[in-house]
Each structure stands twice: as structure tokens, then as C-alpha cells.
Amino acid sequence: MTEERAGTGVKGLDEMLGGGFVPGSMILVRGAPGTGKTCLALQYLIHGASKQNEPGLLISFEEFPSSLYRDAKSLGWDLAKLEAEGKLHMLFTSPEVFLTGLESPESQLNQLILTGGIRRLALDSVSHFDRLTSLEAELRPVYTGVTNGLRREGVTAMLLGEEGPSEYRRAFKGGLSFLVDAVVVLRHVEIESTMQRAVVVLKMRGSSHAKEIRRFEIGPKGLAVTDTFRGREGLLSGMPHRAPG
Amino acid sequence: MTEERAGTGVKGLDEMLGGGFVPGSMILVRGAPGTGKTCLALQYLIHGASKQNEPGLLISFEEFPSSLYRDAKSLGWDLAKLEAEGKLHMLFTSPEVFLTGLESPESQLNQLILTGGIRRLALDSVSHFDRLTSLEAELRPVYTGVTNGLRREGVTAMLLGEEGPSEYRRAFKGGLSFLVDAVVVLRHVEIESTMQRAVVVLKMRGSSHAKEIRRFEIGPKGLAVTDTFRGREGLLSGMPHRAPG
Amino acid sequence: MTEERAGTGVKGLDEMLGGGFVPGSMILVRGAPGTGKTCLALQYLIHGASKQNEPGLLISFEEFPSSLYRDAKSLGWDLAKLEAEGKLHMLFTSPEVFLTGLESPESQLNQLILTGGIRRLALDSVSHFDRLTSLEAELRPVYTGVTNGLRREGVTAMLLGEEGPSEYRRAFKGGLSFLVDAVVVLRHVEIESTMQRAVVVLKMRGSSHAKEIRRFEIGPKGLAVTDTFRGREGLLSGMPHRAPG
Amino acid sequence: MTEERAGTGVKGLDEMLGGGFVPGSMILVRGAPGTGKTCLALQYLIHGASKQNEPGLLISFEEFPSSLYRDAKSLGWDLAKLEAEGKLHMLFTSPEVFLTGLESPESQLNQLILTGGIRRLALDSVSHFDRLTSLEAELRPVYTGVTNGLRREGVTAMLLGEEGPSEYRRAFKGGLSFLVDAVVVLRHVEIESTMQRAVVVLKMRGSSHAKEIRRFEIGPKGLAVTDTFRGREGLLSGMPHRAPG
Amino acid sequence: MTEERAGTGVKGLDEMLGGGFVPGSMILVRGAPGTGKTCLALQYLIHGASKQNEPGLLISFEEFPSSLYRDAKSLGWDLAKLEAEGKLHMLFTSPEVFLTGLESPESQLNQLILTGGIRRLALDSVSHFDRLTSLEAELRPVYTGVTNGLRREGVTAMLLGEEGPSEYRRAFKGGLSFLVDAVVVLRHVEIESTMQRAVVVLKMRGSSHAKEIRRFEIGPKGLAVTDTFRGREGLLSGMPHRAPG
Amino acid sequence: MTEERAGTGVKGLDEMLGGGFVPGSMILVRGAPGTGKTCLALQYLIHGASKQNEPGLLISFEEFPSSLYRDAKSLGWDLAKLEAEGKLHMLFTSPEVFLTGLESPESQLNQLILTGGIRRLALDSVSHFDRLTSLEAELRPVYTGVTNGLRREGVTAMLLGEEGPSEYRRAFKGGLSFLVDAVVVLRHVEIESTMQRAVVVLKMRGSSHAKEIRRFEIGPKGLAVTDTFRGREGLLSGMPHRAPG
Question: pTM for this structure?
């Protein structure tokens, strides 16, 4: 018997993931500004809370709470209602406090995870840990601490990672991509004088997954993952173009 | 009922923005020299002041006041008249003074925003904050301070950001693009031995927006956003070319 | 009479290798996250243990043991059974302890190799040694120490090396590729809006080997190396495209 | 009534500029070695001196006076004659002396501008200021000092800036392009196994201007700006090629 | 009368070299891992020792002697036999000891060259000198010392240089390519989903040489240099592709 | 009446130069290893000495005298004879001694120039001055010192500059290209699986010059500059290819 997967509720994406993320796994979602990382994290938490009975926790290091509520609302979600029902929790903190809390059983973070029965967690964004040290070599242990700490909590954690417009071709700082169980990349793709969003699952330990690069759409009705970019090459290289012939 | 959007008065652009910017949002306008950032900021303030009854404030760290008046005049705008009517305010200051003022209720900046009933603000340019520190990691808190400070003021703020000719493909310094609610990119695009201007909305929190890359024109009659670059690829990559076939 | 080669059990790959790796050789397997390095290492050890009577040792600097068991299980392998039979050993340690142990006959590492009759070894990953020094010039002697130490042990060692998405075009840190006997590169290759895996053998001292770039697949039935990418150019350059004409 | 523009006397270029440069503006002319920056500066000064009754001043930080006279002569210009008539002045100085002089009313520089009735100025080259500091952040204030100082003098100033063969795609050091009113780029363009010169006006505050990339020719009869590069793409990217189809 | 050239015994390559290397010259052989540098060096020494009566010396800074014997054997060469006959000598040493020895007549190195009548020398690899200093400017004198020292010995020396997969486009460290008399580049070239080896002679002082980029093959029967890459462009740029039309 | 030009004796090149270099000018010849810089310098000196009655001086910072004689001989030139006739002089020295000598009337350098009636000079190579300082900003004054010193000597000087395979696209160190009167670039160009040599004159103060990129050939009969690369694009970009259509 296989464990139930942690679905996102986005049909196309869950199909790509073989039903959803593997429970207890660490998922890195990388993307440039505007590619929809925060929307995907909200969707992931809301779906768990409302459809899979998995209470969620959103940890934000920077965003204004009010912005989040407004963003969610524009997609048809009522965060306040889920919070009132105890299905969704928000924690606005700093990277330093988060790291300390992860180590201490009595911390607000751990109490919240324990009493709230948190099963899903989203961290917006792991890139803030980059600023704790200027030495690349010191960053890896920080990331190891984060992922090991979260694994001990038993949550299925989505870690949002900030990228520049073409940084997919560079190694992610501190080798985080090697530490996590799954890597989802969101990209802006220029097609016929239009910026479209693409999603691809680059890595998924312990599971098979779809390899397609698919369209990722965010509209007033929420998120959708649809078809592939038929007849296009170079989507992830930053130079998409129509294939010859 | 939705809030009224903060329009720019440029018909094509307002359509792309779903009517205009979301009130209270932070908008980053990135562009190389000559792509029209200052013109767009002036247009945004003038439209608010004269058509939506939203008094505006332009904060400049470098430009000569006389240059601004002349530039505006060449586009058919009379800044002095709007100033005399109390609809437009100019503040020529330094990044350091601005940051200090943002924190202090008695500062000239805050008094001006309060007494002038300022609703729209343009900052030319945020790139000057880059020079306050040589450490990338120290820049993010500066930008967080700026955007949080402006959010507290309740203004809809357009932050102009300086880029080199092909820097769109690099992450914007200090991760500012992740902090703001909207990102508008202006670009020079070489088409048939001519440099044209392009505009694209890369990010817009809490709203849907058009994804097209459209022509952005500045002429004696003002600004216009028109059609897409049909049949072209690689517009944002810095290597635009005619698509094969 | 030639020595028996250390096969991987992946038919297509063993064909490329002229039967398998040369016994006693040092093999660098380079790849980006999600290209299948750990899967290949497990496959290599399991095949040796179960089909060629070569006990194996997996040394991991970071991964959770439980993750490894789960990953193996998803590919149809039962690591625990092999461990119980004494055919497979796991060592979770740090780069520093590993390096010290390699030098000392009484170390846990050496005792394990000796008493376990270890013939195959996999190290996940050599990139952790990069973090022991910030000077490129000091890294080479570290790598020389690792490869010479392992050569003295007489094992056939697979060293996993972490790369970013397009780092194949850069020299591997510390010149490790020059020190080892064989270099196998795993790559993500974008073909028709899909990310496929490719494998190529770039170097193999003391043996001829196939030069093709072939598809590398990981599925519920395990690993497979199949056909070449007919009609494609630029596979390793990071810009694969259909060849004209 | 509009002010008379500061023409260059090169018909094709003056057309692109809407008649000439805006009086009192700061113009950056960027180009690689051999693209004709100094020739354009001489042409600009000579035309002002001889045709628009605007005495000119050439400030050079490095070139031998004799080289300048010879270069001018090869283009059919007699600098000595214009100097004798008091229409053209030459100042061979250092960046440090220039900066100090700009601040002091009694300096040789200011006396020369005052008594000579200087209306046009050319500075060869602003890149020498780069060498005054090794910190990018300290360079901007230097450039601000130069442009503000020259604005106070009331001259229309052409600032020559040194670039490498493909540096157009990088931001100009110290953000000078953002400080000036106009940016003219000169480029070498490889067309059919020949290096041709191209000129483009990237920025012009307070005026409309042509956007074409045109041929820029230097011959024994002087300078000429002619047609566009019809059917070519990628002219400014450094990889010009014939457009398909 | 011309001196006899120092042939490699690889027919296709000797033709390219006008018969072989110029006696007494310094030859840099650059290549990425797996391109066949060590094989070419062995071939060069063996041919000299067995066919041109030129005793050879291989100096290795890193490789295990046993690996070398095995590699040679796989290509059908018996190094031990040549050593027993006094035609081939091996010296496993460090860069520091080598440099000191080069200066001192009594050193093991010089005694070996003198008593062994060494005419050909191969150094594997010169890249180890890079690690003696972190300052590029200090590296040139080191290389000058190496090449001048070897010139004084009167040997024809092949210096192997390590490159990354695409480093041909970068200057070789310390400007070594400018110091030597000949430069031979070995490259991996991707053709139709296969990695092939290519060889090109970029420089050869005092002699004409073929300019073709040819296939370089290593098989059980040894080395071969065959035909050119007809109909291909961009071989050395790292992006080989079929030429259009 | 125009001064006689300093020809190179290479017919195709002298045509490109309008007869030869302008007397008294500073000429930078840039090129990668093996592009023929030293050959061109020898040809330039020999032609002046034997055909235009202009005694020449070759200053070398590194090359062995014997190598130079051999190289010249392979091209059919007898340097020793010209030396014996007092038409050609060789000076093997260091950058430091050269710089000091340039400033002092009694130096060996100045005495040689004076008593030898030197009219042409070649310096192999100016890149050695790069090593005198690690600060880019300190390099410019060194180069200014060299060019101004040589201008005072009244010689027509060819300065050889070392480049990597694709460094044409980078600015030459210390801005030397801006200081000199002429820039000649030698390049390796890959055409149909063959490395050919190309020459282009990028800059020539005080003279018109051909803009073509032409073939540059070095054979047993000496140097030749022939036709252009008809139907090819991207020659100087490092990615030459057949133009479409």
C-alpha cells in the first residue's frame, strides 16, 4: 500500500507528480519574480487544508500579511476562513528566529506545528538564508540544517527559491537542489511576443514523474497546468524558438 | 466592489494592467537608459493628478529640476501648472535623507505626503540605494525598508530601476523584484536596423495582467503602447530575430 | 586473459563501457540534480553485490538513510536484504572523518572495507570536499588524496559529482576529471518540450568505450540506457536543437 | 519658439537628432577604438565654430596635440586656422586638474570658457575618470560632478566614452548613461567580411529622435551618416547576420 | 639540409606537422579530460624510442605508474620493455622538485637526461605549475623558467595542458601558448549524438603546417588522425553544427 | 606632398593601409598565439631595412634569439645578414629595463636608436607590461609612458599584443587600443573544418584604410594578404558561419 500523495489540487500538475508530492519530502520550487511561486505555495496549502485534511503552515520572511490575503482573494481563496477553522496558519518571522526555533522543542514554531497538527509547510523564501553568510561553503550546512530540521518535523515542505530571469542555467546557491527530494522549476518563456509561464519537474526522489515542460497559468479561477510547448526548442535555455522544419 | 485602479492614462498599458496598478502597490519599472522610465513616471503622476484626482510626488535623487520641466514640456505637459495647483510635488533629495525621512513622522517627506494628500509617488531612481552598500546581502534590508516604508504611507509607488542594455537576464540587485507587487520592464529592441521600445508586465500581485510584449512609443503627443512584435522571437533575450517559417 | 569488468547491470551502459568499468579504477559520475547519479550508484552497487559477488559500500555525506531505502524501493530494490546478507554496507559520515579514516588502517572505514571484503564503493558526493577549502589550488591535493587512498584500497570506486544545469562546459572543480580513470556525464536534455536524461562516457583510461550520447531512463523497473538522440545537435552544449536539413 | 539646435554638420546625423543636440545638454558618445569618436567630436566643434558661431573647446586628457592636428588635416580641416580666429580652443590637461578647475571660478578652464565665449565643449575621454577610483559606487558622484559642473557652464558638451568591441551590452561604468541627456553609440559592425561603422541615438531627453541604426562613414571628405542596414539583424548584439527569408 | 623532424608515428598527424615537430621545440598539447593527451604523449615517446632512436623521458606529477603501464598496454605498447632497453625513462616527481632540478646540473633530472641521452621529453602536466602561485602575473615567469630550462637541455618537449570542456576560447593560463613553439589542441566534438575527438595545430614556429581540424581516434590498434569534419561549422567554438545549404 | 608611408612589403596589406603605416605612428597588432604577430613584425622590419632604407629595431622580452633566426629563415629571410649590414638590430631585454631606458638619453636603448638611425621599431610584446601591475587603473599610465616615449623617438612602432582565442570581443587591457594610432587584428577563423588566418585594420588615425576582413597567409615564400571571406558571417565574433541564402 502506498501512502497518499500530497496533491496540489492543480490537476495537470498532480498528474505530472504521479498524484502529488511524496509525503515527508522536501520540495524546492525555483522561479523568477512573477512566475507564481507564492501562488503555487498558497494553492498547495489550501488544497491540503480543505481537501486532504492536512493543516498547513505558511512561513514568510518578508511579505506583508495583508498582501497575502489580497493575493489569495484575487484567486478566489479565503485565507481568513481557513485560518479561523484552524486549517491554515501563518507565521511572519525572520530567518534567524526560524533557524533557532527549528532546533528548540519549545519554540513558537514547534509548538505551532505540534498543536496545529501541521502536515504541510511552505517557506517563502529559502533565498533569505543566502544572506546569513557570504561564504558559499557555509551556506550548505545552513540548508542541511533547514531540510533535516523539517524532515524531523515530518511535514511535507515546499521551499520557495528566488531566481533571476535566466538563472536556471546556474547552480542554485549552496547546492540546495541536491539536498531536496524534489525540484520544480517555474519559468517565464517568451513565445510569439508573449511571456508565458512554464513548469517542469526536474527531480523527484522515490517516484517517477512526468518530464514534460508544460504551460502554467494563473487566472481569476486559480491555477492550471495545461499542454506542452509543441514545436518549440530552448525553453529552459532562455532562448525559446520555433524548431525548424 | 473593487477599488479604482491607478491608471497611467496610456490606453494600451492600462489595458495590459487590467485598468491600472493596484492601489497601494509597489511597482518596479526597470529599463536601460533611453527606454523611457522617467517619461512613464511623469505620465503616471500627471494622469493621476489631472484625471483621477490623485496628487503625486516625484522624488529625484539626481536629475536637474530644469531638465524635468523641459522633458515634460517636450511631451506637451506643463508641470509648473500642476505644481501651482497643488496636484504635483517635486522633491530633490538624496537617498540618505529620503531613508531617514521615511522613518520620521516630522520629516519634510512625511509632511509633504500628509499635507499634500499624496496618493501616487515616483522615485527616480532606486538604483541609488545600491550605492549605500557594497554588500549584496545588506542591500535587501535597505529595499525592504523602502518598500515597507512606502506601503505604510499608503501611496501607490512607482520605483524606477536602472539597467544596462542586456541586464534583464540578470537578477535585479538586492532581489527588489521579489519585494515589489508589480514589475514592468522597458527594453530597447532591435528590429530591422531600428531600435524600438518594448514594454512587458512581468509580475502583478493580486491581479491578472496581459502577458504580451508590446511596442512602447514616445512622441511629441506623449506615450503610447501599441501592438505586439508579431513574428519575432528573442525580444527579451537581447537577440531579437525573425521567427523562421 | 582480461580481468572481469565491473558491470552496472544496465545493459546499454555496460555495452558502452566495453563490459563495465575497469576493476580498481576511479570513476567520476557528474550530473545536475535529478539526472540520476544516486540511482546509478545504487544500481552499480546492487548489481555487483547480487550478480558479480562484489560486496559494496555506499558512503554518504548528507542523505538520510531512510530516503535512500525509500528511493531504492521505488526502483524495486531491497537494500535492507542485501545489507542483512553482508553484500551491501552503508556508511553515513562526514568528509573530514572520511579523509582521516582513509589514512588510518584502524579506522571504521578501513575495517569495514577489510572485513566486508568490499570491492565496489560509491561516494555521494565528492563535491563536499570542495567545501573544505576556498582555494582552488588546495583542492587538487585533497582530490589526489581521495583517489590515491581509494586506489590503495583496491576498490572500484564511483565518485558522484554535483553540477549545475549547464556546468558541463566548465572545468570540474579541482581538476578531478583529470585525476580519475573514467568520466561519465549525466545530463538533462530538452527535446520537444520534454526534459530527457542523457549519458555519455567522456573518458575511460585503459579501455575503448562507446562515444555515443544516449538516452538514460529511470522507471519503476529500474534503469535503462537506450538509443542516441538521432537528428539532434548541441546536446551537451545546453542548447539542443534539431539539426537542419 | 524653439532654441536653435547644436548641429554637427553631418546631414544624416542632424536629421536623426531632429536638427542637432539640444542646447545645454550633456551628450555621451560611446564607442570602441576606431569607431570615430574623436572625429565626430572635432566635426561637432568645427561645425559650431565655423557655421553656427559657437566657439568650441576640446579638452583632451591624453592625445598628442600634433596627432589631433594631423587627424583633422586628413579630413580636410584646418584646426590651427580656427584656433587663430579664436573659434576653437584646445586644452590638454589631466582629469584631476579638470575636476578641480570645474569647481573654481578662477581656474584656467573657467577663464577660458568665459573669455572665449565657449558654447560647445568636447571631452576626450570621460573614461579617464574611471581611473580615479576603483569603487564603482564612488564613480557615480564623480560623473555627477562632471555633468553638473558642465551644465552650470551652460555649454553643450559631448563626452567621449571608451568601450571594448562588445561592451555595448554592458552597463556603462558609473551609470553615466543615466546622467546624460543624450546617448549616441558608435559601433563596428561586420557585414560581408567587412567592418563597417554604425551609429544609433539611444537616448535624447526633451526631444524626439530617429531610432534607426545607420551607416557612419569617415572618408577624406569628412563624415557622413547614410542608410540603414537593411535586411540585417543583431547589429548591436555583436553578431550581425542576414535576416532569414 | 633540414634536420630530421621528431615524428609521432601517427601518419595523419605527422603529415599535418610537415613530418613531425621541429627538433628542440617546445610543444603545448592542450585538451579536456579524455581527449587523449597522455596517449599522444606516450605515442610520441614510444615512436621516438623505437623508430627514431631518440630516448624519451616521461615526467608525471600525479598519475600512478601502474595506470600508465596499463593504459599503454591497452593500446598495444609495452613500456616495461622499452624501459629495460634504456629507451624510455619514467620520472614521478613534484612540480617543485622538477623546477629545482631543472636549475641544478647535479639533479636526478639532469643526470637522467645526460646519462640517458634523452632527446624527447613529455611533461604530464604543466597545469600543475598553475598551483604554485595564485597570481597570474607570477605564473608567466614560472612557465618561462620551464621552457627556457628545457630548451637548454636540447630536448624536444611535449607539455600537456589541462583544459575544461570549452576552455579553448579562453587564454591559456600564464600565456604559455605564447611561450611555446607549437600548440596542438585536442577537443571533444559533438557530431550526431556522438562525442568525437578532433585535433588541430594552431601554431608552429619555423615551419609550415596543415590548418585542418581533423578526426583523432584512439582504438585498440593505437592512434590515428584521419579526415576533416566536412560540412560542419563551429567545431572549436563548442557548438558544432551542420553548415546550412 | 605626403610623407612616404611605412610599408610592410605585403602587397595586400599595404593596399589596405593606403600604402603603409603613417610615419611616426604607434601600431598595435593584436592576435592569439599562432596568428602570425612575430612574423608580421619581422616582415615589417625587414621590408623597411631592405627596401625603404629604414633601419629597424626588434625588442623582445622573452623569445630566444636563436628561435627568431630560425623562424625568419623558414620564411626565407636572413636576419644575420641585415644585422651585419647595420640595417636591423635586436635587443633582448626586460620590460623594466626598457621602461627605464626609454626615459634616459644615455640608455643602451636610446644610444642604439640614435647611432643606428632607427626608423622602425617592433616590441614583442606589450602584454608583458600587464604584469608590472595588478591594477587595471595603473596600467594605462604605463602604456601612455610607452607610447609617448616612442613617439618622442620618432620611430614608427609596431606593438605586438597577446590575446586569447576569443578575446577580440573584450577590451584590450589598459585601454591600449585607445592610445595607439592604428590597430591591426589577426585572428584564427574556422572555415570548413580548417583554421585560417584573418587580418583586419580596425583603426588608423589620420588616414583612410580598407575595412575588409581578409585572408592572411604565412607560407615558405613569406606573408600574403589575399581575398575576403565571401559569404561568411561572424568572422570576428568567434563563430564564423556561412551566411544563409
Answer: 0.93
